[in-house]
Amino acid sequence: MLANTLFSVLALAGSALSAPTPAPSVGPQELIVVSPTIISPAAGDWWRPGTTHLVTWETDDIPPAAANNRGYIYLGHLTYVHDKKTGEDYPNENLDIDHPLAAGFLITDGCANVTVPKDTKHRNDYFVVLFGDSGNTSQKFAIRP
After folding, report:
1. Around 68, how many Cα atoms within 13 Å sit in the side-chain half-sphere?
2. Could you write out the three-class secondary structure of 25-86?
3. In this structure, which topology does domain 38-143 adopt according to CATH?
């Protein structure tokens, strides 16, 4: 009898330990979007292929939770692609994502040095895009000889 009671107690304890438990309650998570304004390059600036420049952006509104976000800077220029089905023209930023101008810097740094590739074609409508968790586009500037 004592053995049956002991067995029942152990079986009850074992089943309580193996019983499913509800997942811990997770509250809503805040999505932090960092979208700093690019200060330079600015409209009217021009760069030469092969030269190094400082890209700068505002950091005042970057929340502390985003202090460790890392960024990338890409060079782009705007063209339009015509969709024959809809008859609409859609913008294409032509970002050279395979060759970032800068990578891995902290968004809170507020600046990064970039070097214009020597084979960059001359245009008057270039811009840089700063990616952290959101893309920010500079004003258009020129790259010319």
Report:
1. 1
2. CCCCCCCCCCCCCEEECCCCCEECCCCEEEEEECCCCCCHHHCCCEEEEEEEECEEEECCCC
3. Immunoglobulin-like (2.60.40)
Q: Is 50:144 a contact under the CB 8 Å cutoff? A: no
Instruction: Give the C-alpha separation, 84 to 8, whole Å.
Output: 76
Distance (Å, whole) CA 2 – CA 23:
37
Global pTM reads 0.72
Is the distance from CB of 141 to CB of 105 less than 8 angstroms? no
The string of pLDDT tens digits covering residues 3-60 is: 444 444 445 455 544 555 555 555 555 667 778 999 999 999 999 999 999 999 999 9
For the chain, the domains span 38-143
Q: What is the pLDDT of residues 91-108, one digit of tens each?
A: 999 999 999 999 999 999
